Amino acid sequence: MFDKRLLESSELYDKRYRNFATLIIFPILTLFIGLFIFAFFAKKELVVTTSGDIEPTKIVAQIQSTSNNKIIQNDLSEGKSLTKDTILLRYNGDSDATQLSVLNAQLTQVQNQKQQLGFLQNSLLQDKNLFKKGDDFGYEQTFENYQAQVKTLSDNIAKSNQGVADQNATVSNEKEAINQQIDTLNTQISQYTELENTASGNGSISSNNPYLDQYNSYTAQLEALQNTVSMATSDTKKTAQVSADAQKSTLKAQFLATVQGDVASLQSQIQSLTVQSSGLTNSNTYDNSLSSQSLSLTAGALASANKKMSGLDESLTELHAKIALQNQVDEQSTVRAGSVGILHVLPNILGLKAIPAGTPIAEVYPELSKNVSIDLTAYVPSTEISALKNGQTLRFTVEQNLPKPEILSGKISKIDSAPTAQNGLNLYKVQAQTLLKSSDVVKLRYGLQGKVTIITGNKSYFDYYKDKVLGKD
């Protein structure tokens, strides 16, 4: 029989109800309650999924063909890292190089000629030979000819001035001789005057007077007359005295007349010599034009040199223009990268041996490095475009065999207003920008394709499945 006391024991109930069916109910109930609560509070992202690729935010430069000539060197390769002036294409341009070489040789020749002409100009200005080495253009000989002309001019003027100086010296010597003669005559006049004054009783004659003998002869005659009176008798003495006095007066008058005649003759000679001296004049016809004529020669030589320099300057300008034009032509025979970046070769020119001038051949994208901005580009069907707007998050997952998926995120910055036809579908181009991290740089390339997920909003899981059941978007 069954012992009813066992009904009061928990052991009975434990053995009766402790089985899998009863134990599973509580976990399931707990899970259900948790899921129910999760459905109200947890959010599900609403997304638009499509494909996309990585594009540059801008094109640094576009490279075009510069010549119609045959390509002899082609270094275009997709994704090539460029530095400034990296050679991309080289065209056949041998004739252009030859012409450039000829123009450069002409330029060197004209520059050398201009340098030598500059030496000539400075030599003329400083009046000394400043040529440092042999002159192949004859400018040093031109300067030597100029110096010879200046020397000839100087010698001629010096010779002419020496003739004038000699003539003036002769005149001076003649004047000096005349003056000496006049002085001598004036001395003689003073001596005669002394003789006249002595004879007139107004003075005495010096012992060194050259005419002292003449005066002594005169006084001797006077004494002889006086002696005649002394020898006369007393009866005739008075008569003799009168006669002697008359003879003395006559003798004195004759003596003074003779002296005065000699003085007059001397004065006449002095007058004649004075007239002769006044007729002797120095010549003032010295040639003082050496400085002006030398300046004129220098000015003429400089004017000629300056004219040649102007011609050389014009030649240099013309040559520089030709060389610049030829360099431009030569530059057109080589296509170089104008900036640093990544090369993207346009597919329609691959394999061509000649490309018409002006045809785009490649584009330069910014280098991929830390903090460089790139565009995450997606093409969204027209049926889903209405849910998109600027500022929404766009996730780009790179489709590569990587241990860890490479995911990039950005905010939508641009949505095209018109669709683009691709493979018979109307797709809208959507772009989002993002900054690269250092860990992204080694894994990414322009043109990489991947999966694009655009988050358009979120709902609770309850609302999401409710709308699905009710057929709402």
UniProtKB/TrEMBL annotation:
Residues 168-195 form a coiled coil. One of its GO terms (biological process) is protein secretion. Residues 59-366 form the LcnD-like barrel-sandwich hybrid domain. Residues 99-328 form the LcnD-like long helical bundle domain. Signal peptide: none annotated. Gene3D superfamilies: 2.40.30.170. Pfam families: BSH_LcnD, HB_LcnD, LcnD_C. It is a single-pass membrane protein. It is found in: Cell membrane. The chain crosses the membrane at residues 20-41. InterPro entries: BSH_LcnD, HB_LcnD, LcnD_C, MesE/LcnD, MFP, Secretion_HlyD_CS. One of its GO terms (cellular component) is plasma membrane. It comes from the Bacteria. Its main location: membrane. Residues 371-459 form the LcnD-like C-terminal domain. Keywords: Coiled coil, Membrane, Transmembrane, Transmembrane helix, Transport. PANTHER family: MEMBRANE FUSION SUBUNIT OF EMRAB-TOLC MULTIDRUG EFFLUX PUMP, TRANSPORT PROTEIN COMB. Belongs to the membrane fusion protein (MFP) (TC 8.A.1) family. This is Bacteriocin secretion accessory protein.
